[in-house]
Predict the 3D structure of the following.
Amino acid sequence: MKTTSSTVTNPGHIASYYAATAHDKRPRETLAGSIETDVCIVGAGFTGISAALQLAEHGFGVVVLEADRIGFGASGRNGGQIVNGYSRDLDTIARRYGHDTAKHLARMSLEGGEIIRERVEKYDIRCDLLPGGFFAAFTDKQVREMAEVKSNWEKHGHTGLEMVGAADVFRYVRSDRYRGGMIDRFGGHLHPLNLVLGEAAAVEKLRGRIFENSRAVDIAFDTHPVVRTKDGQVKARYVLVCGNAYMGSLLPELTGKIMPVSSQVMATEPLDAGLLDELLPANYCVEDANYVLDYYRRTADNRLLYGGGIGYGGQDPANLTAVIRPNMIKTFPVLRDVAIDFAWSGNFALTLTRIPHVGKLSDKVYFSHGDSGHGVTTTHLLGKILAEAVSGHAGRFDVWASLTAYPFPGGRALRVPLTALGAWWYGLRDRLGI
């Protein structure tokens, strides 16, 4: 793997492709002293910034506290894919929570992508946004399952899905690995760090304040809650906790119901544009249908960005490239000898139910986390819904808050091995085609 200079040119971020190619690398100030505001938000990832922008647009005073840099966590490290829906399909949600709840969630399921597209246009955010996603199936069983998912989504008004037969796979992916798939015309891909940075700049233009290197170390649950950092504090009417997998030990009552999970991503050297035209003719992003899945897309500067692998508990493999590269070569043998310029990992927050955990810790302290791998769209939706609740319109928030979250079996000591065992079982089923 080639070394990169992103740790020097964009200090405070990991050495990722996104950090190296971020448009806005300005550091924000660290909180010092005491300030007051309407809403204090903990976490400057997609959820927190989405909520901040929604609130700032409606005239609220907003302060965002970020432990590291804007987009430091999963929001600035992910695969950059707009994948609609949730980490559990609507049939599962209906069986678990009832048909009325499933209908409510279905009505919201495309909104995250709509929020992104609207904000990119409204605030002229340069994040390489392009439409279209392809779900690739390895087996006939996966094709049948996709057809069932498509049918169920269409009952709830999703009109952008289309099945792809084996003969037409090459219109989207030039690979012999797939038996078919499904396209989502309402999906898409982008540069996620530039998206969250662009949204953060919009918050600041609306007089919101964002403090970096300002980790929240304590929250006092008073009539007007107070969030304390090492060097300062914020007194607010409301607090929104949006830390996800990077919340640390701030609120054990929340972190006990999520598990950090790492995913690995790499980006090749710049490739010939004609080669990428051949490999990804429609320039859609791609996600396969396996339980432990691979995902990939073309970047604006003609690299292939390829992700996959999983590390329960947030543990990273010793050699990231060794985990991902073999699958890339299986998918595209022609890339066997290309150089890898960047390889990195990032943690997302997984819940036991694979459904986001949303709720209140008091009448003034709200939270949302645990998007379970579908964070790009869901965080934008839930950030908006948190802002709605603070504004006095809590109907949609209440739907999400009604979904029970459970601790992982075995507690912190056993959650990783038990979850890994389950992933091994489902991975075996994928390999056997059952």
About this structure: Confidence is low (pLDDT under 50) at residues 1-8, 413-430. The longest strand covers residues 340-350. The chain is about 35% helix and 25% strand. The CA atoms of residues 148 and 292 lie 20 Å apart.
